[in-house]
Design brief:
The complex is a heterodimer. By secondary structure, chain A is an alpha+beta fold. Chain A has 13 helices and 18 strands. Chain B is globular, with a radius of gyration of 19 Å. The chains are: A alpha+beta, B alpha/beta. The interface between A and B is large, with 57 and 68 residues.
Chain lengths: ~375, ~290
């Protein structure tokens, strides 16, 4: 789950990192009022994506009137497909130098990884590509946390800021990451001000979806995912459904097998209409899955590919067949079934629909692709 | 990370619905399941096996150390269960649970590293040694899918791994070992670790490496594959998945170029691995590679 800047920054502040004074406005008048009381400000579009500056979603203003003008322009803007519904109005700070800092879950070291660069103000991909030598990578053992001395030693010399001060701020960032089960907690830019403070001017926070249940209050302040109506329905039912551009509907189990089924559709010359998997504990949702996948009007053929390990193909098949008469599929359906419960699944299919599954996934995919040509 | 029939297996969370179904299958197939753990049902019997209050209690009553633990408990219970297994001295821990907070996973992986234990998963379908035993949610008992033989299979995904084993068996091969490494973003056993294990296994002659877009594990495995003589064929799921979207497995997300299909294919091919467009073509190419 992603968080907008205004919802993420308080987490840094709670860990003791300085952030500029400011507030959120949803109207141009509110933005003007905030700027009036704060003095020279930055007006920033609140959408959970980078590149807001490049898209024109950030403006420097000196007066309330300028803030009103800027907010009126930014509110309602589209940035990366997201509509701006609020702006953050923050006091300008006198920047002396910009840095990059982040802590993230790292699959290589199997633990938290702290990143720091004395080159700030550009995104991490750019830093990694253009200034790899200026990127400090500091893996942390999550059981022990950061040893202050060790981090200070790992940091490069920084103009105008002592290593101890920077290490202290980064340690606070690490504690914000830990306290909030972050997948990523990033400050870009982190700045040294001309009056000697270190401040976070932005914050990007992604909460680990698997940890939402222990951060229910926090999750309420997260940015809702941009979902289509059918994707929303899938989420409410409890499975992952993603709408795509093609016309071959895909109903499968397990993330890997579902992606593979989509790949096969593409390989044999058509495109998938969706990703939908009912593996793991969602394998009892065959009925709802059939309803959702066929509710997409683009679907001209449906491919049902089950291969059972934990997910029993008999249970999934019986779910789909249970919904069959209600849904009354008007498009041709192509089945492939193997693995746990396959004998029972085949028997059910024969009894209910009088058909046998294709011998292999490839056969079923080829037939489905042929049908939509 | 290959499990053998003589190894003792403890099931933490044995009394749950899924765990009951699969513990029974494991026992029938030949896995040496010695019992399970459920703190609320300590002292009772389940499936004719003892239930202990903790792995530490279970270990205390054994003549020899417990070889392997299989963890099937709800997500919040996994971290304490894994630490309990480590405390009990268990060196092979297979974690099937999905949706575990990653910070918990990193915590017990760090503890496992210190204890010298191997964690397989989380979010794995398990490991199987056809003809001997299996640990997890694998239909090892289905002879159309798993027959003993000499092909090692590595997969993040249980369902896709099962399909690949089925394809292999249909083509006349048998399976020496299936290693499900799990779909989570941070896992204990990586593709590279599993590859090294199959490389060192005398019973494995060829390998099917099943990857997925996202992360850097296949690239890392490619480094190891360079030095191998056993033929490797590979399929990577996700070529048709749009970038930036999570396709179920939290690990399967492409950001920029990192973890892309093209990058992985290039790295593996440079290491002499045959990367194929569909899983059904794996057996034929492996046959050629084994005879050539």
């Amino acid at each position: 789950m992603n968080f907008e800047e205004h919802a993420a920054k308080p987490l840094l502040a709670a860990a003791g990192i300085s952030v500029p004074e400011g507030g959120v406005a949803t109207s141009a008048d509110d933005a003007a009022a905030l700027a009036q009381s704060l003095g020279p400000c930055v007006v920033k579009a609140q959408v959970p994506t980078g590149k807001r500056g490049k898209a024109g979603g950030i403006a420097l203003v000196d007066t309330g009137d300028q803030a009103r003008e800027a907010a009126a322009r930014i509110l309602g803007m589209e940035i990366a497909g997201l509509t701006v519904k609020s702006v953050l109005v923050e006091q300008q700070v006198p920047i002396a130098k910009e840095f990059y800092a982040a802590v993230l879950n790292d699959s290589d070291s199997k633990g938290p990884l702290l990143l720091f660069s004395s080159e700030g103000g550009m995104d991490i991909e750019e830093i990694a590509a253009n200034h790899p030598d200026k990127l400090t990578r500091f893996p942390v053992d999550i059981r022990n946390g950061i040893e202050a001395g060790a981090l200070e030693q790992a940091l490069p010399p920084i103009d105008g800021v002592s290593g101890a001060d920077m290490a202290a701020v980064l340690t606070k960032l690490y504690s914000a990451y830990c306290a909030n089960d972050a997948e990523l907690m990033e400050i870009n830019p982190l700045v040294a001000t001309r009056d000697g403070r270190i401040m976070a001017l932005d914050c990007k926070f992604t909460l680990d979806d698997s940890a939402i249940r222990r951060h229910e209050e926090l999750a309420k302040t997260g940015a809702p995912e941009k979902l289509t109506e059918l994707e929303q329905r899938g989420q409410e039912i409890g499975f992952k459904y993603i709408e795509l551009d093609g016309n071959v509907g895909v109903l499968s189990n397990g993330a890997g097998l579902t992606m593979t089924t989509m790949d096969a559709v593409s390989h044999y010359g058509a495109e998938p209409a969706n990703f939908l998997e009912i593996g793991g504990h969602a394998f009892v949702l065959g009925k709802q899955a059939l309803e959702v996948v066929l509710a997409n009007p683009r679907v001209d053929a449906l491919l049902i590919n089950f291969c059972g390990a934990i997910a029993r193909t008999d249970v999934m098949t019986s779910g789909v067949l249970e919904a069959w008469d209600d849904v009354d599929p008007q498009v041709p359906v192509f089945w492939a079934i193997s693995g746990t419960g396959e004998d029972d699944a085949r028997a059910m299919l024969k009894e209910k629909l009088g058909v046998a599954p294709y011998p292999t996934m490839d056969d079923a995919v080829k037939a489905a692709v042929e049908a939509v040509k | 990370m290959i499990v053998r029939g003589h190894e003792s297996v403890l099931v933490q969370g044995i009394t749950g619905t899924q765990a009951t179904f699969w513990s029974e299958r494991m026992k029938e197939y030949g896995t040496k399941v010695i019992g399970g753990v459920n703190p609320k049902k300590a002292g009772t019997q389940h499936l004719g096996l003892p239930v202990w209050g903790s792995a530490t209690d279970a270990a205390a009553g054994q003549d020899s150390p417990i070889d392997c633990s299989c963890i099937i408990v709800p997500p919040p219970g996994v971290k304490p269960a894994a630490l309990d297994a480590l405390e009990a001295g268990i060196k092979k821990i297979v974690i099937l649970t999905e949706h575990i907070p990653v910070h918990d996973t990193m915590y017990f992986l760090s503890a496992a590293r210190e204890a010298g234990a191997q964690v397989i998963g989380p979010n794995t379908a398990g490991i199987a040694t056809p003809g001997e035993c299996f640990v997890g949610f694998m239909p090892a008992f289905n002879e159309r899918v798993f027959k003993p033989g000499h092909i090692g299979v590595i997969s993040r995904s249980g369902s896709l791994g099962t399909l690949v084993c089925l394809n292999m068996v249909q083509a006349g091969f048998g399976i020496s070992a299936f290693i499900g490494i799990g779909g989570d973003p941070v896992i204990g056993t990586t593709t590279r670790d599993a590859l090294q294990c199959l490389d060192e296994d005398p019973n494995t002659q060829g390998i099917a490496l099943i990857g997925e877009i996202g992360g850097g594990m296949e690239e890392e495995a490619a480094e190891y594959a360079r030095g191998m003589t056993k033929p490797i064929v590979s399929f990577m799921a996700g070529a048709a998945s749009p970038p930036g979207k999570k396709m179920g497995h939290a690990g399967a997300i492409v950001m920029g170029d990192k973890g892309s299909y093209a990058g992985k294919k290039k790295a593996l091919e440079a290491a002499g691995v045959s990367v194929l467009a569909t899983p059904s073509s794996l057996p034929d190419v492996l046959k050629e590679r084994l005879s050539g």
